[in-house]
Design brief:
about 130 residues, alpha+beta
Length: about 130
């Protein structure tokens, strides 16, 4: 390469870097004016949520059992919207109101990955 070609390339690279710096220097700077946002209260009142239960606690819950995301997964959805993964159930009544008694097992991990694990002792259709 000749000295003139290297000199031209140097100017092109420097010009590109300067252009990029000018463009980037404008990013992140606001217009200098402040804007205010108003907060609107929700139109629907929040619903009560059941408090978390202690591990190993015996509970009786009311809700509807649905098929989980994977085969063999059964999920109880309570009236509060809490999801419980039903353990030790093979063919529970689905899509009807039931009462489920069992023991919470929050330390268990399941491939179903849907709700608090609940070791079922009894399912009663209502």
């Amino acid at each position: 390469m000749t000295g003139q070609t290297i000199h031209r390339r140097h100017h092109t690279v420097v010009a590109a870097i300067i252009a990029e710096l000018v463009i980037l220097s404008g990013c992140g700077h606001g217009s200098g004016t402040s804007t205010t946002t108003s907060t609107v209260a929700p139109s629907v009142a929040p619903t009560a949520v059941a408090p978390p239960s202690a591990p190993g606690q015996s509970v009786t819950l009311r809700g509807i059992i649905h098929a989980g995301p994977l085969p063999g997964c059964n999920v109880l959805i309570t009236q509060h919207g809490t999801h419980y993964l039903l353990l030790d159930t093979t063919n529970p009544p689905r899509n009807i109101l039931v009462t489920v008694s069992g023991i919470l097992e929050p330390s268990l991990i399941s491939y179903c990955n849907n709700g608090q694990p609940l070791r079922v002792q009894r399912v009663t259709p209502l």
